[in-house]
Amino acid sequence: MKLTNSTLFFLISLFCLSPASASSSKPQVSDGSTILFTTIGRPTFEFDIFTLPTNKRPPSPADEHRLTDGTSINFNGHFASPSPALISLLPNNSRIQPQDSSLVHLIYVTERYGTPTLNYDVVHNDNSGSRVRVPLFSGENQHNGMSVNSMKDKPVLSNKYLVYVSTHENPGKPMASWAAVYSTELKSKSTKRLTPPGIADFSPAVSPSGKWTAVASFGEKGWTWSFIEKAIGSDIYVFLTRDGTQRVKVVEQGGWPSWVDDSTIYFHRKSDDGWISVYRAILPKTGPVNTKSVTIQRVTPPGLHAFTPAASPNNSDFIAVATRRPGSDIRHVELFDLKKKEFVELTRLVSPKSHHFNPFLSPDSSRVGYHTCRGDATGRKTPRNLLQNIRTTSNDLSLFRFDGAFPTISPEGDRFAFLSFKGVFIVKSDGSGLRQILPQMGFGTVWDPVRRGIVYTSSGPGLAPGKSQIDILAINVDATNPSTAVKKLTTSGQNNAFPWPSPDGKRIVFRSARSGTKNLYIMDLEKGESDGLFRLTSGNWNDTIATWSPDGNWIVFASNREFPGTLLMNLYVIHPDGTGLRKLAQNLTGGVSMHPMFSPDSKRIVFTSIYAGISAEPIATPHFNVPSSEIFMVNLDGSGLTRLTHNSLEDGPPMWFPKIKATGDVAWPKRFGPSCSIEDFKTPNTTGKMEVNKRATMSMCVVPSQ
């Protein structure tokens, strides 16, 4: 495989992933500490939900209206019919008239609290006047055993029942997705799981009568690397909405179902000619329903990609689809005229350079909704956050999302160091004083615990693909002479990376390939590389990303020693003298677990992993070609594995420190980094083979491997 920049970023991001698995024996956090982490690319996903009329052809920018607040990340909407059950959720003083055609009743996913959850808004369809906003799961931690920070996604309302995806239940198997479909009665909040145990279901759609629900399902399959090239690894199942029974597979290899009537489902799949296209499944009205009795018809022609279809009840005139046309890397929303078999362009005529995701139609087909990232162009009201406070289930643990990779806080608590593609930076804890301290890309940051103002990282000219000229650097961020601020601690250039100092500041542990294989070394900072080097691990495998426990007794690291030559990584601990080596947690075997770090009391470890596979249907999510990564913590003895974050993106390297001063979000004084820099997947149509295409943002998680 040619190691392009895109492929390099993919390999980087794969090693940043995090598994999702909770245990009934949760670690007790009592030291009031803080975990910092990065969600890869999220600061650029400034999604809001917009709408266009379907009868205005061609549309103009004046026809488009933003329906969501312009402050939080909002996506995956659903136009709801204003049933009595839905209207009953509104405040008594809202005075909403269900028959008022100027109002839009929108249910959607919002990350207003850091984790995707559901909201119900009533807003004027011309974006005038005030809106009424109702959080649908504001008390979820008190009801139905739902975790306060579990992901909620892809809502659809059927009369008095809300059907959606949630990740609050642990299937108890490595690499098995937590995503399952649930139904909640709006008034009583009574919730029922519709997905069988051990099954992963995504993207529910309810038939017009409300009788049937269709889902894209991986069945009992976990996430596999082959999904990267398949793009769609799911099948479509149908079951009774009331209780999940009479479940039957109706389509092999299909995703994102949408009903037009109780016997017709639109969906997308990858065709034999390499194009992702929309298909129609016609279910028999009598007799058995299965994959053999269902009629499958291709709807959209070859020559472009068409996916995530949206139908409206009993509308035989058109469907809405997202498309990727040849020569374009941008996905747009179009209508497909079912009678003329022609596309009608919409969003490209309004905003040609912005991605538009996951269209949905109003019940009367007069309006199409979608989410897109426009950044400041649509008047977003808040700047990006340096820190975003994330809700957690613990009163003693603070969880903050940081706008930058590998964030570490100085011992004095006044400055952060972090990475971006533009180099290594420091910034004050209030977001001010942003300053570059290294112009080239680095791997990892950590502050010296004793010497004020010293930041360790690793970098070098070998960050180009196919090279590995990486060395450990010590940067004096307070040096008056910038030319002498950077000191090389290693000189061999043999893939020396990810340094971490001992608590007393006398030694550092790092990864090096100087012996021909990537193992761990400890270096005495006073004696240096020539006289003070101790090889901590050895073997023909990859030992990497080690951190020291604050009490000095342990070093934790990631290794593929159980599966040499593969991407499968597990966590291990070892004493600094080389004794006591053991695997940290048996139930992580077979996945990718990386970036471990001890808690301030040295009793727990936070890390990333792909233990929970994917959390959303891949092609509907930006950067869909890797499993969603989550942050976990586990006790030093391997017990108490607990999932901390839930989303469909990649949560990157977590860092655990004594409690920081911030108690809420901290905004940048001015914008840092790109806005709306979203890179979509690529699928060359000549061979039909999925090309791995990577992100414009950075994960910075993996070891340079060449």
How would you describe this protein?
The protein is globular and about 80 Å long. The two termini are 13 Å apart. The chain has 706 residues and is mainly beta. The strands form 12 sheets. The chain has a 5-stranded mixed beta sheet, with no helix packed on it. A 4-stranded antiparallel beta sheet has the order 3-2-25-24, with no helix packed on it. The protein is built from 4 helices and 49 strands. The longest helix has 10 residues. A hairpin with a 6-residue loop joins β21 and β22. The chain folds into 2 domains: 324 residues, 6 Propeller (Neuraminidase); 332 residues, Neuraminidase.
Question: What are the key terms here?
Answer:
2 domains; disordered N terminus; single chain; 706 residues; Neuraminidase
Which stretches of 5+ consecutive residues score pLDDT under 50?
1-30, 140-145, 684-706
Q: What's the overall geometry? A: globular
Radius of gyration: 26 Å
The name of the CATH topology of the largest domain is Neuraminidase
Strand order of the largest sheet: 48-1-27-26-49
Number of strands: 49
Describe the main β-sheet briefly.
5 strands, mixed
Q: Give the end-to-end Cα distance, rounded to a whole number of Å.
A: 13 Å
CATH superfamily label of the largest domain = TolB, C-terminal domain
Under the CATH scheme, which class of the largest domain? Mainly Beta
Q: Could you say how many structural domains there are in total? A: 2
At CATH level 2, the architecture of the largest domain is 6 Propeller
Strand content: 35-45%
